[in-house]
Amino acid sequence: LMPYLQDPRLVRELAYINGQWVHSQSDLPVFNPATGDVIGHVPELNAEHATQAVDAAQAAFGPWAGLMADERAALLLRWHDLILEHKEDLATLMVLEQGKPLQDARGEIDYGASFIRWFAEECRRAYGDTIPGHIAGAQLLTLREPAGVAALITPWNFPHAMITRKAAAALAIGCTVVIKPARETPFSALALAELAERAGFVPGVINVLTGPGKALGDALCADNRVRALSFTGSTGVGKQLLQACAGTVKKCAMELGGNAPFIVLPDMDIQEAAKAAVAAKFQTAGQDCLAANRILVPQSQYEEFLDAFAGEMARIRVGNGLTAGTTMGPLIHRKAADNAQSLVDDALAKGARLFAGSQQAVPGEHFFMPVLLADVTPAMRVFREETFCPVAAVLPYSNTDEVLALANDTEYGLAAYIFGHDQRLIWPLLQGLEFGMVAVNSVKMTGHNIPFGGIKHSGLGREGSRHGFDDFSNIKYTCLGGL
Ligand code: ADP
Looking at this predicted complex, what is its ipTM? Predict the structure, then answer.
């Protein structure tokens, strides 16, 4: 790993607890998904380490929360600046453990850092309210107070930004954090800890645990001192974590799976729609909770759309994320590639049409080449599941009622896309779509300034924006009587 980086000290093969870089009796390998090579090792920590991290975070909480907002903001901004100074190294490290193209990794560092700046600014405006009274001789107020120690459990698809999006909000409002990154991508998290240490965060404010998700997650959920849990990952694991947090009644923010519909309206230019659909589908090789999972096209333009989509899809260049010209990297594991194949097999067995596949040779066993399936139906797994792979599922519809019913026919409710112009069609869809986020005529929708989050089985809470503090803080109502 180190020869790739200008600053090799960003590669830490140790976990970070109470300002100490710690090891354990056993290590876990970390793989480069493009090659299958082991790129390094991290400690396999256990429940005791999780308790030590919470001890440290709890001890650091009072002093951290007691700082002036300006003081916390200054540290956060120093961390932000160091991240951007080391952008190239952080992006390279991310490609090596995650696989995405270098250009995308650079974009993720910018995106991730933007949350730190945003919340550094927002914490200076974390106002409470004064409430017009109903009790004689009393002044009524609310204060916004940090929840306490926050546990942050994050996935491998955005190894940098899913950490900063949570940590920036938590830290800015005055929480201390215990971060548990995905087993697949610990190095991005540890590099963030290294830069936080350089920025001057005192021991205990930021801790990073590496090791088995279940054992560490269970220990964090069971610990009564952890007052908030923010998780991004699969819906299945999110449900387990919610159950695990019931015993200690934590605040839970859950950013879970998605099954985004991508609705093309009849007045949309088909080339443009196909280009947008390809962009919305194949980002991060389809391993994105915002990925356009079900592409719904008017019957009258259906075949034309399929041709245009196949043409756009053929431009994707699959390969090692560090190779110039690559626009799509590998899947995270061999298992993910096998799952992609089983989704295609299931759809074909149930009558889907294999409209197009890639002409390029498969660059390795962790790769899965883009596939376009037509004539998908709600009976197929590609329709029902969050596919998390580069398999595009297209189906025709004949009217607005039908497309709305198809779009909402999922337990998920994260993001939806609409492409078209007629506001008389768009507005009823905007109202009827059961999703936390809807983008009209735009593939890009995320940012530090917007409330990211889902409804139904896609989650609880919102990240980023002025709502981003809610999951890490409590409102304390005070009735100051006897005046
Ligand atoms: P993905 O599909 O993105 O791998 P997961 O939900 O499996 O999503 O993983 C997201 C995060 O949850 C990772 O940090 C992983 O280590 C952690 N994790 C996985 N299983 C559990 C579990 N049973 N309890 C707590 N955390 C878990």
Answer: 0.93
